[in-house]
Write a structure and sequence with these properties.
Blueprint lengths: L1 H17 L2 H5 L22 H9 L17 H15 L1 H12 L12 H12 L3 H12 L6
Helix pairs in contact: 4-5, 6-7
């Protein structure tokens, strides 16, 4: 039994020898109001969209029609290809216009025959139709129900 205790003592002594003296000083709970990592973990942005955005800003290793090295980014080349394609393809032209100017809004009209609905409700509840209509009009104008 004495040999086992000695081995434990030696390995414990050995572990303390390798530890830096300041390591234990840093092992304390944070104080109230103290934030040790105020900005949190930095975001890891590896989505396909973020990678695509990085690539779109690069200049592809291609040559233009005259054989000179290309100086335009992928983004500029894609925009040019879209515009050339839109001349022949109205669907592509509509897509470009929707993305630049926004979709054309279509007004929607809704009509509600409040009087007929109020009369139906009054009959269902056994009330006077005129009273129900007046109460509905007052509520629609911003008044509170009584």
């Amino acid at each position: 039994m004495a040999k086992i205790k000695a081995k434990i003592r030696i390995s414990h002594k050995h572990a303390q020898h390798r530890m830096h003296p300041n390591s234990l000083a840093n092992l304390r709970p944070p104080q109230p109001g103290e934030n040790r990592n105020p900005f949190g973990r930095p975001p890891i942005d590896v989505s396909l969209t973020s990678l695509l955005k990085i690539e779109l800003e690069k200049v592809p290793p291609t040559k233009d029609k005259n054989g000179k090295p290309n100086t335009r980014t992928w983004r500029e080349l894609l925009v040019q290809a879209w515009l050339i394609g839109a001349v022949k393809n109205p669907i592509l032209l509509k897509e470009i216009l929707d993305r630049t100017d926004g979709k054309v809004s279509q007004p929607i009209r809704v009509s509600l025959d409040v009087r007929a609905e109020a009369e139906r409700l009054a009959e269902e509840l056994g009330l006077e139709p005129g009273e129900v209509i007046k109460e509905a009009e007052r509520i629609m104008r911003g008044g509170h129900p009584s």
